[in-house]
Write a structure and sequence with these properties.
The protein is elongated. By secondary structure, the chain is an alpha+beta fold. Strands 3-4-5-6 form a four-stranded mixed beta sheet. Strands 1-2 form a two-stranded antiparallel sheet. The chain is about 40% helix and about 20% strand. Bound molecules: adenosine-5'-diphosphate. Adenosine-5'-diphosphate binds next to strand 5, helix 6 and strand 7.
Length: about 210
């Protein structure tokens, strides 16, 4: 498991002094207990630390991740993706805005007639166009979209955690879910088969959190 710098420091502290309470770890790091809570929870769930109520944290030499984490780590995008909200590049920016409202999405995937991925257009792209001199009724989305090959994608067999990491790292809301194919010119192209969004990640969290309730 990759630890953040702060998580590594926590582990070092617990290795050197245990049991140690969350308050004591926080004091050593000059942070509040509340700030440390997410890191302590993750380290405990991952099996790196053991939390004993009213005693404190221990380091676990041979740590086994919790079954929940093992489960989380094998989830694949294909089982959680949504149907793609897609448009063609020749529709106007105005119609793209209307489509965002009717489909209740914040980004649209731009595809060709045969569902080949061409680009993405988000709320802010359209807001930017609206602030400028763009004639929203006349200019097609193909002109202002973010286009291939700059689109960050995922595939049905990618791990949910890896796809979620892409959403975070690139600060975007939506990944088109694609399957690669080779076109008649021998070039690699991508057919859109779904979308994977921050909302999908939130739903997974809620589903796991309420399992058995
Ligand atoms: P918004 O900024 O409207 O809330 P995003 O954060 O998803 O929506 O998009 C930010 C920018 O990144 C926009 O310019 C958009 O065109 C572009 N974008 C959106 N999704 C992707 C993607 N999967 N790959 C590359 N660029 C993207």
């Amino acid at each position: 498991m990759e630890l953040s710098e702060r998580q590594s420091r926590i582990v070092e502290i617990v290795k050197n002094t245990s049991p140690i309470t969350g308050e004591q770890i926080a004091a050593k790091l000059d942070l509040t207990r509340a700030t440390l809570r997410p890191d302590l929870t993750i380290l405990t769930m991952a099996g790196v630390l053991e939390a004993r109520p009213r005693v404190g944290y221990f380091y676990r030499d041979k740590h086994e991740p919790s079954p929940l984490l093992v489960y989380l780590r094998q989830l694949r995008v294909g089982d959680f993706k949504s149907v793609p909200a897609a448009i063609r590049p020749d529709i106007s920016n105005y119609d793209a805005i209307v489509t965002m409202f009717t489909q209740n999405v914040g980004s649209l995937i731009v595809v060709s007639e045969d569902r080949e991925l061409l680009g993405m257009i988000s709320r802010k792209d359209l807001l930017k166009a609206a602030l400028g001199k763009t004639d929203l009724q006349q200019v097609p989305v193909g002109v202002i979209m973010t286009r291939m090959p700059n689109i960050i994608m995922t595939t049905p067999d990618e791990l949910v955690l890896d796809a979620a990491r892409k959403l975070m790292q690139h600060q975007i809301d939506t990944l088109p879910v694609v399957e690669g194919f080779i076109n008649e010119h021998g070039d690699e192209r991508y057919e859109v088969v779904g979308r994977f969004t921050k909302t999908n990640v939130t739903k997974i969290l809620v589903q796991i959190g309420t399992l058995g309730q």
